[in-house]
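Section 5: illustrative case.
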């Protein structure tokens, strides 16, 4: 589903997100116009802009409405996300991103590294220009640190056949959940809300991010690459073991372990067998139960929000995102 069709029920939010995209694009200035075009493509390449949407929505509960600053904060969140995706593709050697050639596959790893780094600098340039307090810059700095720690955890745990669900949850709490939490928390704080409200917003974002990543990992076993926009089970070949596989491996199935042991030598036929075994061993079903648990945690905290139009929108958007694979 494209960005435009996803946000059709929320026309005001859709318009604001288009402004966020335009603000991001205005910040991209490179002498190399080919790389500049590649970065602009990555901004307009069909991502749903979910994280900046949460930033915008949570900012509207407060009385300190400053449209320029809120748009800049939302843009910084999405730039941070885009930079991490570019670097993810380098580490994973991924040929596709959202169904299109990744920057690293099109221009090489060197260009992709610098392109991702450049977006980090753009993110902080925006924050330094628009943030009204040093605290807002520090919040984003700490958030980035936790995101990168999650990525390092994932790298450290590659090809670890004894990886536990606890390891996995720690990894995704940094890698994915932290950015959702940062989006919600910084939006609430920027809108002038109390620390208590902003902290509840942080936990809402964290729970949404946990469920979102688990569902993403479920889709890796239940959708084709054409639908999903990236090679299916590529994570397994790269030694990134996620919830469905970790649950299945607990059943101590020798054939599954034999296939996993092939690592990068795993064929497409092997990958199809891995997928079949993970489903048969109940890994997919257990992962769905885990995603549902975090979804329920998020919804429980969303109920604590004040009765405003934004509360209903947050609930509807969250359910739309978290029901896509469960």
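Designed sequence:
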């Amino acid at each position: 589903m494209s960005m435009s069709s996803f946000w059709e029920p929320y026309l005001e939010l859709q318009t604001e997100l288009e402004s966020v995209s335009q603000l991001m694009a205005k910040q991209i200035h490179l002498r190399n116009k080919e790389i500049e075009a590649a970065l602009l493509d990555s901004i307009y390449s069909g991502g749903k802009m979910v994280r900046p949407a949460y930033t915008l929505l949570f900012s509207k509960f407060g009385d300190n409405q400053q449209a320029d600053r809120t748009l800049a904060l939302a843009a910084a969140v999405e730039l941070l996300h885009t930079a991490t995706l570019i670097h993810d593709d380098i580490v994973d050697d991924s040929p596709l991103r959202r169904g299109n050639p990744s920057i690293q596959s099109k221009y090489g790893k060197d260009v992709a590294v610098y392109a991702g780094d450049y977006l980090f600098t753009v993110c902080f340039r925006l924050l330094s220009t628009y943030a009204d307090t040093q605290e807002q810059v520090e919040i984003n700095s700490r958030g980035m640190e936790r995101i990168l720690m999650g990525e390092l955890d994932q790298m450290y745990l590659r090809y670890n056949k004894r990886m536990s669900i606890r390891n996995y949850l720690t990894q995704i709490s940094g890698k994915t959940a932290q950015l959702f939490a940062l989006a919600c928390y910084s939006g609430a704080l920027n809108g002038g809300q109390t620390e208590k409200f902003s902290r509840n917003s942080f936990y809402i974002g964290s729970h949404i991010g946990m469920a979102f990543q688990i569902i993403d990992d479920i889709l890796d076993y239940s959708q084709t690459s054409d639908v999903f926009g990236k090679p299916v089970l590529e994570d397994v070949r790269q030694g990134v073991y996620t919830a469905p596989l970790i649950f299945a491996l607990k059943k101590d199935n020798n054939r599954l372990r034999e296939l996993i042991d092939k690592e990068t030598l795993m064929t497409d036929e092997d990958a199809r067998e891995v997928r079949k075994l993970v489903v048969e061993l109940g890994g997919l079903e257990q992962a769905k139960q885990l995603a549902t648990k975090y979804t329920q945690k998020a919804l429980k905290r969303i109920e604590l929000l004040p009765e405003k139009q934004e509360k209903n929108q947050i609930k509807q958007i969250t359910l739309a995102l978290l029901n896509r694979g469960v």
